[in-house]
Amino acid sequence: MKSIQYLLHQQINKTKWDDCINNASNGLLYACSGYLDSMAPQWNALVLNDYDMVMPLPCRKKAGINYLFQPSITPALGIFGNDITQEIGIAFLNAIPKQFKLWDLSFNSSNKIEYTGGTIVARNNYVLNLNDSYDQLQQKYSENIHRNIAKAVKSGCVVQKDISFDYVTAICKKEFPKFTQVEDGLFEMLHKVYKTYKVHSKVYGVFSKEGTLLASAIFLFFKNRAYYWLVGNTTESKQYGASSLLIDSFIKEHAGTNLLLDFEGSDTASVADFYKKFGAVAEPYSTLYLNKLPFPFSLLKPLPEHYRLLISK
């Protein structure tokens, strides 16, 4: 292993960067330059040799403090390349400049992270391999999912594809604040991602027989993954089983392919259980939280509560 360089945003060769992500055994959409440019403008990076391996560093500065953060709607980043050993992982972490006093970084499932002084939080994503036939995949559904699909069909729900991005985000803007803090400009950033990857996307919606949009989702495709990326479900969708019908429709259309349906989480038990009812399996990954702020400023940034809750489980 040669040197790991720290590069500022303007120093990054994005052609070489994207080639690395495309050729990496663990390459994810979130690590592509177009995605990062949208969700974490002015991200910096660590680069091994001539882009043999890379690690994006989404960074900001607030009140004079430089910190690393996990962008919204970006479940995992970390180190990307081939044959990433634990030794290489430690070398990358040690190469992060000392100016960053606070880290909140989620690593992809191929990264086995150990770092003294930080808190490592074990998390789960859920994925479903679609290479079996639809009949075989459907046999793995729980009874609850089968009932939901039947209920949606019986109530007259219909699936439509290629609906507008704005239809999905109209629901998201209403529903997201009910369960998460929405950062300023989030939907403008998401629109940039969608415009960048629209040619690699599919948008599904489930409408009631009266024509009301109940459930919606934008799927983004990269390499062999289909990401259940932006999901907008109304509060009424559950009573119709609309979300189950939507996911089933996607599975039916893509069964027998080499795609991996990536549900993008979840840490929420009820959501994780819902994905598991389709036959999805856990894909563990880790978040590293590190607070190097001097006392007493370190007291202002304790381990976030949702991480503490995950550790206590």
How does this structure look, described?
The structure is a single chain. This protein has 313 residues and is α+β, with helices and mostly antiparallel strands. It has 2 domains: 4-121 and 286-312, Aminopeptidase, CATH 3.40.630; 131-258, Gcn5-related N-acetyltransferase (GNAT) (Aminopeptidase), CATH 3.40.630.30. It has helices spanning 14-23, 33-39, 86-94, 134-139, 143-154, 165-175, 186-197, 237-240, 242-254, 269-276, 305-312, and strands spanning 4-7, 44-48, 53-57, 59-62, 65-68, 100-107, 119-129, 158-161, 201-207, 213-222, 225-233, 260-262, 281-291. A 10-stranded mixed β-sheet has the order 4-5-6-13-7-12-11-10-9-8. The radius of gyration is 20 Å and the shape is globular.
Short description:
With 313 residues, this protein is α+β, with helices and mostly antiparallel strands. The chain is built from 11 helices and 13 strands.
